[in-house]
Amino acid sequence: MLIDTFNDTIDIWISELNRFDLAQLLLKPDDGSWSLGQLYNHLIEDTGWFNDQIEISLTDEANRNVQMSEAARTLFAKGSFSDERIQGDPLSAEKVKQPKSIKELRTGLEQLKFNTNVIWSKMQSMQQFGKSEHPGLGFFNCYEWLQYSEMHMRHHLRQKERIERFLNTGKTV
C-alpha cells in the first residue's frame, strides 16, 4: 500500500538521524554541495509542499483531466528517479538552511509523517479529486503526489550515501 511505502521510507530518514551528531550534519563536502542537515531540511520543505499539493488536489477538482508530462509517465512507470546525479541550482547550497538541532530535524520528519498519514485518511474517503501542477512534470492527482513524494525521499538516499562517504573518508565523491 502506498502509505506503507511512504512510512517505510520516511522511517529510514528518521532512524538514520541517530547516527550523526550536529557537527556532522552541518559539514559540507564542498562549497557547492549540501550538508546532510541541509538535505534533511530539503526533504522536510519539499515533502511539506508535496502535501500541500495533495490537499489542493483533494479540495479543488480543477485540472482533473489535465495529464502529466511524458517524462512524468516514464518516472511513475519506473517507480523511481533515474540513478543519474541531478545537478541543482549552484546557489541552492546557500538557499537551503542548515539545521539548528537534530531535534528540529526529527520533529520536522515526525510531523510530516503524521500529517501525511492524516492526509492519507482523507484520500481514502474521497470519491473524486482534482490535480495540481508540478512545476516541470505536469499535473498530479493526490495519489501521484504521494508516490512522487516517496520516490523523491528514496532518490535522496543516494545523495545521503555520498555525503556519508565524505564524512567517513574526508573525500568528495
Task: Write the topology of this structure.
Layout: H1 2-16, H2 22-26, H3 36-59, H4 70-78, H5 92-95, H6 102-125, E1 132-134, E2 138-140, H7 142-169
Helix pairs in contact: 1-6, 1-7, 3-6, 3-7
Notable features of this structure?
173 residues, mainly alpha
Which outline best applies? globular
The strand order across the widest sheet is: 1-2
Distance between the termini: 35 Å
Radius of gyration: 17 Å
Mean pLDDT: 92
Percentage of helical residues? 55-70%
What's this model, at a glance?
The chain is mostly helical. It is 63% helix and 3% strand. The chain starts with a helix and ends with a helix.
Please provide a written account of the structure.
With 173 residues, the protein is mainly α. The chain is 63% helix and 3% strand. It is built from 7 helices and 2 strands. Strands 1-2 form a two-stranded antiparallel sheet. Strand 1 and strand 2 form a beta hairpin. Helix 3 runs parallel beside helix 6 and helix 3 packs antiparallel against helix 7. The longest helix has 28 residues. The termini are far apart. The model has no long low-confidence stretch (mean pLDDT 92).
